[in-house]
Amino acid sequence: MRRVDPLDATRTSYDAVAETYAELFGDELAGKPLDRAVLAAFAETVSGPVADLGCGPGHVTAHLHGLGCQAFGVDLSAAMVAVARRAYPAVSFSQGDMTQLDITSGSLGGIVAFYSIIHLPPELLPVALAEFARVLAPAGQVMLAFQTAPALPRLAPTTVRRPHRHPAHRDDEPPARRVARRPAASPTPSWQPLPAPCTACIPPAYLRA
Q1: What's the angle, vertex CA 76, arms to CA 138 and CA 183, rounded to 5?
Q2: Are 113 and 83 in contact (CB under 8 A)?
């Protein structure tokens, strides 16, 4: 019997919407001054290669590269990696799983995971963090970003796999994001922003270690 990969649904859903996701979020840093400030502070102090894990369409990786970091991106979705490579040909991107990284132990100066650990089921979060520790050099740094808001009311079935809430998963709508939504009768993803009050009041959290 084939072992079920708990990340299969996330991989498949992002493969399906990679192009549209990049159109919606590829320039989001322009409107996120706090994200930019956090990344700038990280770039000033990190030394050595930096992995952007869960890099999506590659905009954060490219931003770090522009700040002088030896940054490369890793994403679960092959389609997202293809989009990132096309958009930022000067930056390296590869497909990979943050719970089993194809990276040499102790080789990284830093890890950035911006709004990506939310896609890990609770039982895999410790696995991913152990991988982060394995691949980081002794003085390496980790910069995490994630959402902190209470759950939004359910609006419609999502095309993109809904994020998990830690420490335990609850069957809630994803916090702090516009969602990909697909009506039950339609096989084609349709994207609509959540109402402005939903997106404006959801604070991010940052964890640096």
Answers
A1: 140
A2: no
- Beta 92-95 vs 70-75: how paired, if at all? parallel
- What are the tokens at 83? 């989009």
130 exposure class (CB count in 10 Å sphere: 0-12, 13-18, 19+):
exposed
Q: Cβ distance 7 to 119 under 8 Å?
A: yes
Q: What's 184's DSSP letter? A: T
- Is 87 in contact with 53 (CB distance < 8 Å)? no
Q: What is the pLDDT of residues 136-178, one digit of tens each?
A: 999 999 999 988 765 544 433 344 444 444 443 333 433 323 3
Using the CB atoms, write b or e for 2-17: b if 16+ within 10 Å: eeeeebeebbebbebb
0.90 cut: is pTM over it?
no
